[in-house]
C-alpha cells in the first residue's frame, strides 16, 4: 500500500477545519504554516468571509497574492480581506505570526497557489516560505506603509463596485496605505476622474502607462505634471489625442508635455500614435529625453525634414532595438534622411516597421545600403507601400546576408495591379512565381510574406490574409 500524499493530507486537513468555521479561526494561532494557503483557498472558494478575515490577520507570508485566485473581481472577498487588514492596521504591534505587508490584487501569484495546492512540481518548504530581498526589507521596516498592488484599467462606465470600494477604502487610510500600480491604462476617461484616482496612487510605482483618450491637446498638457511624477516609468504609449482648436495655444501645450520627459530617467520604450503636435518640433521632445531608448514608435503623423534630421542626430536613439515609423509619409522627404537614420542605429536594430509611408522605388533604393548593415534585424515590414518587382528583387538581394532576419512582410508588387489600380490575380500569381525564383537564385532558405493590406496610394480596398512565399524546399504557398 502506497504512502499517503502529504499535500493531499494537508488539503484534507484544511477542508476538515472549515467544517466548523469557529474552530478553524481559533486554531490559526497554532496552525502549521503549510496549512494557511490551502485553507485560504478553501475559504475563498466557499466564500467564508469570517475565516478569510481571520486568515489575513495571521497570514505568515509577506505577500498575499489574492488577485491570482480571482478570475473576475469579487467584492465580498475583497471586503473580507480588507476587514482583516483594518484589524491589523489598528493594532500597535503586529501579531507574532503575521508577516503580511503586501496585498497583491493583480492577476499574478498563480504559481504560489498551485504549489501549495499540490497541482505543480513541489518546491521545498524552506524555499517557498523564504522572503525575497524586497520582502526581507519590509519585514525589517515594520512601520513602513502597507502596500496594495493593482493594475488599473480606467475606462468610462467600467469602474465597477470592486474598484470603487477599494478606492474609498484607500482614500480613508492614505496615511497607512500605499496603492501601487505598475501598469496603468487610461481609455476614454475624463480628466476629473483621472485626477481623483491618481491622487490615491503612488505615481513613482508606475512602470507602464497607456493613454488612449480622445483628449484635446490642452487636456494632455493638464495631465503632463502627473506624467512627470512617474519617475520609474519605463514604457509610455499615447494615442488618439484630438487636433487642437484654432484658439488653442498649441506651442505652449507642447512645451508643457515634452518638458516632463526631463523627469523620466527610466524611460526605455516610447510609443506615440498620431502625435500631430510634434510636427516641426520633434527636437523639443528629443532634447528632453534623459536616457537612450530601446524602442521608438512615432506613427500616423507628419514629420518635417527637420524632424527626421533631429531624429537621426539624437544621441538617445543610437541604440534602438525597435523603430516604427508606419504612417509617417516619406513621399516628399529628402532621400538622404531615412538612410542616415538607419545607419545611426544599424548595429542594434532588430525590428523595423515602415508601413504605409508612401515609399516608392527611389526611396527604397536609397535605404538599401544602410538596411544591409542592420545585421541584428529580425523583423522588417514594408506593407502598404507601392513597389515594383525590380526594386523588390534588389531588396531581397540586399537583405539576403542578414543572418537573423526571419519575419519579412512586403506589399503586393505594383505589377499585380491594372492601370485602374485593381488587383489582378493572374498577375499576382506570376509575381509570386518570380519572387520564388529570386529566392532560389539567392540560395538561402527563406520565407517572405506578401501582405494584402490596401495601399493608400493605389485605391484598392481588397483585404486578404498575407500569403507566404517559401524557399526551403520547392514550395510556393
Automatic annotation (TrEMBL):
The keyword Cell division does not apply. InterPro entries: LRR_dom_sf, LRRC14/PRAME, PRAME. GO terms for cellular component: cytoplasm. The keyword Transferase does not apply. Keywords: Leucine-rich repeat, Repeat. One of its GO terms (biological process) is positive regulation of cell population proliferation. Belongs to the PRAME family. This is Melanoma antigen preferentially expressed in tumors-like. It comes from Bos indicus.
Amino acid at each position: 500500500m502506497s504512502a499517503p500524499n502529504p499535500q493531499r493530507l494537508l488539503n484534507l486537513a484544511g477542508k476538515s477545519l472549515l467544517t466548523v468555521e469557529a474552530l478553524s479561526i481559533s486554531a490559526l494561532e497554532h496552525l502549521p504554516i503549510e496549512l494557511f494557503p490551502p485553507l485560504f483557498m478553501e475559504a475563498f472558494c466557499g466564500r467564508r468571509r469570517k475565516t478569510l478575515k481571520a486568515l489575513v490577520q495571521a497570514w505568515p507570508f509577506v505577500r498575499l497574492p489574492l488577485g491570482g485566485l480571482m478570475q473576475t473581481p469579487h467584492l465580498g472577498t475583497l471586503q473580507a480581506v480588507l476587514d482583516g487588514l483594518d484589524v491589523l492596521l489598528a493594532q500597535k504591534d503586529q501579531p507574532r505570526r503575521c508577516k503580511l505587508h503586501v496585498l497583491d490584487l493583480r492577476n499574478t501569484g498563480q504559481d504560489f497557489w498551485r504549489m501549495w495546492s499540490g497541482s505543480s512540481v513541489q518546491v521545498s518548504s524552506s524555499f517557498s516560505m523564504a522572503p525575497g530581498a524586497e520582502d526581507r526589507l519590509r519585514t525589517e521596516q515594520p512601520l513602513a506603509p502597507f502596500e496594495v498592488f493593482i493594475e488599473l484599467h480606467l475606462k468610462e462606465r467600467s469602474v465597477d463596485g470592486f474598484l470603487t470600494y477599494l478606492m474609498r477604502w484607500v482614500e480613508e487610510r492614505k496615511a497607512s496605505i500605499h496603492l501601487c500600480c505598475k501598469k496603468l491604462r487610461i481609455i476614454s476617461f475624463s480628466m476629473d476622474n483621472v485626477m481623483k484616482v491618481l491622487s490615491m496612487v503612488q505615481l513613482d510605482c508606475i512602470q507602464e502607462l497607456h493613454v488612449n483618450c480622445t483628449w484635446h491637446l490642452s487636456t494632455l498638457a493638464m495631465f503632463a505634471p502627473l506624467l512627470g511624477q512617474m519617475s520609474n516609468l519605463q514604457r509610455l504609449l499615447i494615442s488618439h489625442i484630438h487636433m487642437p482648436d484654432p484658439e488653442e495655444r498649441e506651442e505652449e501645450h507642447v512645451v508643457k508635455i515634452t518638458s516632463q520627459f526631463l523627469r523620466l530617467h527610466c524611460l526605455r520604450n516610447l510609443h506615440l500614435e498620431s502625435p500631430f503636435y510634434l510636427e516641426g518640433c520633434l527636437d523639443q521632445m528629443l532634447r528632453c529625453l534623459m536616457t537612450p531608448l530601446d524602442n521608438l514608435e512615432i506613427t500616423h503623423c507628419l514629420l518635417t525634414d527637420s524632424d527626421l534630421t533631429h531624429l537621426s542626430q539624437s544621441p538617445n536613439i543610437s541604440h534602438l532595438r525597435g523603430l516604427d515609423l508606419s504612417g509617417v509619409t516619406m513621399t516628399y522627404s529628402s532621400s538622404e534622411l531615412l538612410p542616415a537614420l538607419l545607419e545611426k542605429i544599424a548595429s542594434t536594430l532588430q525590428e523595423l516597421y515602415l508601413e504605409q509611408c508612401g515609399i516608392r522605388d527611389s526611396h527604397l533604393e536609397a535605404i538599401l545600403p544602410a538596411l544591409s548593415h542592420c545585421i541584428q534585424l529580425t523583423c522588417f515590414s514594408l506593407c502598404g507601400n507601392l513597389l515594383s518587382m525590380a526594386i523588390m528583387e534588389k531588396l531581397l538581394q540586399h537583405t539576403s546576408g542578414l543572418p537573423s532576419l526571419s519575419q519579412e512582410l512586403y506589399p503586393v508588387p505594383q505589377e499585380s495591379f491594372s492601370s485602374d489600380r485593381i488587383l489582378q490575380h493572374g498577375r499576382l500569381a506570376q509575381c509570386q512565381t518570380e519572387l520564388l525564383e529570386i529566392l532560389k537564385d539567392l540560395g538561402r532558405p527563406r520565407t517572405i510574406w506578401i501582405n494584402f493590406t490596401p495601399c493608400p496610394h493605389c485605391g484598392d480596398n481588397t483585404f486578404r490574409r498575407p500569403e507566404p512565399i517559401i524557399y526551403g524546399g520547392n514550395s510556393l504557398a
